[in-house]
Design goal:
The structure holds two protein chains of two kinds.
Chain A: H1 5-26, H2 33-53, H3 75-99, H4 105-127, H5 139-156, H6 159-180, H7 183-186, H8 191-195, E1 202-207, H9 215-220, H10 229-249, H11 254-277
Chain B: E1 12-17, H1 26-35, E2 45-46, E3 54-55, E4 59-67, E5 74-81, H2 89-92, E6 99-101, E7 108-110, H3 120-124, E8 131-132, E9 139-140, H4 146-149, H5 162-166, E10 172-176, H6 183-191, E11 207-209, H7 237-248
Parallel strand pairs in B: 1-11
Antiparallel strand pairs in B: 1-10, 2-3, 4-5, 6-7, 8-9
Classes of the chains: A mainly alpha, B alpha+beta.
């Protein structure tokens, strides 16, 4: 799948921002005043920036509001509702607490729940696709939740929780990377089932429909950088998990914590790039490609 | 609405005969010709006369080689367009309701005024039947020539999809699969019409007829064949001497 920058930015930063909002929402004794304001500002900047980036790859962003209509059937529409709900409820919660000093805990809990729902619906947009076997697995939502909550705890300064969740997200990530390599062949879909000719012999793509490229090949058969896949996976795990864990275990001050955050986010961006670049769509089979 | 109908009154679709298709791509051209100037936005091309032309097509013809365990390989031309699936994943993923399956005839269509161009429907389609138009930013797909099949301004013989009308080999057939007596239902039943990627559960309406088995030479040798056996099995004379001489080296 083509790793569009807008979608990588969207999933990485909205996940991080929503993770931070989750921890701010359930905190029994949240920071007030300017410290509280800063936390909420960072969280909203990440979440809103990420969600705004998701509209950049639309052919008609001016019609984006129509995406709220089909929540009964579409995960993308459900995501739009959860995101709008999470931002609205958490905005209200932050307004009462940071500006008026009134802590309405149930509002925070509801907002935290909606943040989780947004991360979940985002992951389901990818997980639902049977056409991309690497994504079509329970471990995809698990990975999105682990990264969002781990990154959020890191940003929120919950060191012990962050250590546990970042270690967990690293384990889920490693499982997702390497177990995912099996999933296309496990799915049983090949050029034989794609053409219906598999029972008659070995099917080979002899001649493509055209000499040039097309939308399908550009969007679904992205092969750039695949040969570096394993190296990038290790880089991603080192930056998103190993380095932040080492830094956190030294009981860091602010500077080291900032380095841990930058390292983690960079690692997650690499992971998201691989999430798309290494995902193989079954339509590639028709072109003799994966 | 992007929910799928429980059932459709009719099931219009195509039968594509892989035995008959000669791979001429006439259906590709006639499809593009009709659909670029009728339903919805035109099918644009980018850099059409340059070094890297690319464009939107609703129908493309692949060619595959099938190598059986024994016997010669067979070349199969393989036209592919929207299969108008009964359980169309492209419809349910649509966030805006632009993508829908018609209750009256089962045709899967895109209402381009509602399409935000997110591309998710193309991601969900296993067959590559949907292409985003680079100029218009909306999703394009086969309409089963909905603007021909009911069009009373056209002569009756033209009221079928453009690809079917134009196919010089008669490899494409249009009809109603909900009627067991229709031409397409009978053809599909007689010839063992296949679904593509049935394991994905999309329940395609369009059916593909497999190529008929080819003649083989086993057991069917002509009575005159023995007379055509090669006469000289062993080289004689000068070539016989040369053959033996060269063997010694």
């Amino acid at each position: 799948m083509h790793p569009a920058p807008s979608v990588i930015i969207f999933t990485t930063f909205s996940g991080l921002g929503l993770g931070l909002l989750f921890w701010l929402g359930i905190s029994p004794d949240p920071h007030g005043g300017w410290v509280g304001f800063t936390f909420f500002f960072i969280a909203f900047a990440l979440a809103c920036g990420g969600l705004a980036a998701s509209t950049f790859h639309l052919g008609h962003p001016e019609r984006a509001l129509k995406a709220f209509t089909q929540w009964r059937s579409s995960w993308l529409s459900r995501e739009a509702w959860s995101a709008a709900g999470a931002l609205a409820v958490m905005g209200l919660y932050a307004f009462f607490w940071v500006l008026l000093g009134i802590h309405i805990a149930p509002l925070g809990w509801l907002g935290a729940l909606l943040c989780l729902a947004t991360v979940g619906t985002t992951s389901m947009i990818y997980t639902q696709l049977k056409t991309v076997p690497r994504w079509n697995h329970w471990s995809t939502p698990a990975l999105f939740f682990a990264l969002s909550l781990g990154g959020g705890a890191l940003l929120a300064g919950y060191i012990n929780t962050a250590v546990f969740l970042i270690a967990l997200s690293g384990a889920v990530q490693a499982y997702w990377f390497w177990q995912g390599d099996q999933r296309f062949s496990d799915s049983g879909t090949d050029l034989g089932t794609a053409t219906g000719l598999g029972s008659r012999g070995k099917v080979r793509a002899f001649e493509p429909p055209h000499t040039g490229t097309n939308y399908l090949l550009n969007e679904f058969v992205y092969v750039v950088g695949r040969k570096h896949g394993d190296k990038l996976r290790l880089i991603s795990l080192a930056l998103s998990t190993v380095l932040p864990l080492l830094l956190l275990l030294t009981n860091p001050g602010h500077l080291l914590a900032v380095i841990a955050v930058i390292s983690h986010v960079t690692g997650v961006v690499v992971s998201r790039w691989l999430f798309f670049a290494q995902a193989e769509h079954v339509v590639g089979l028709y072109y003799g490609k994966r | 609405m992007t929910s799928l109908p429980e059932q459709t009154d009719r099931k219009l679709g195509l039968v594509i005969d892989l035995d008959t298709c000669v791979g001429c791509h006439a259906c590709v051209i006639s499809c593009k010709g009709w659909n670029t100037e009728n339903y919805g936005a035109p099918l644009s091309d980018q850099d059409p006369y340059g070094a890297d032309p690319v464009g939107t097509f609703l129908n493309r013809v692949h060619s595959y080689e099938v190598q059986p365990d024994q016997g010669p390989a067979q070349l199969v031309h393989f036209p592919k367009s929207c299969l108008h699936c009964d359980d169309a994943p492209c419809v349910t993923v649509c966030p805006t309701g632009a993508s829908y399956k018609r209750v009256e005839d089962g045709i899967v269509l895109v209402n381009e005024d509602n399409c935000i161009g997110c591309g998710l429907c193309a991601w969900s389609c296993p067959y590559g039947a949907r292409e985003m138009d680079a100029a218009e930013g909306v999703m394009k797909k086969c309409t089963l020539c909905v603007d021909r099949i009911y069009n009373e301004n056209l002569p009756e013989e033209d009221r079928e999809p453009s690809c079917v009308r134009t196919c010089p080999a008669g490899a494409r057939h249009f009809g109603d699969f909900s009627d067991p007596e229709s031409n397409v239902s009978k053809l599909s039943a007689e010839r063992g019409g296949m679904d593509l990627m049935p394991e994905l559960g999309t329940k395609p309406v369009n059916k593909y007829l497999p190529p008929r088995p080819k003649d083989s030479w086993q057991g069917e040798v002509d009575v005159l064949a023995p007379w055509l056996e090669p006469v000289a099995q062993e080289p004689q004379g000068f070539f016989g001497w040369l053959d033996k001489a060269l063997e010694k080296f």
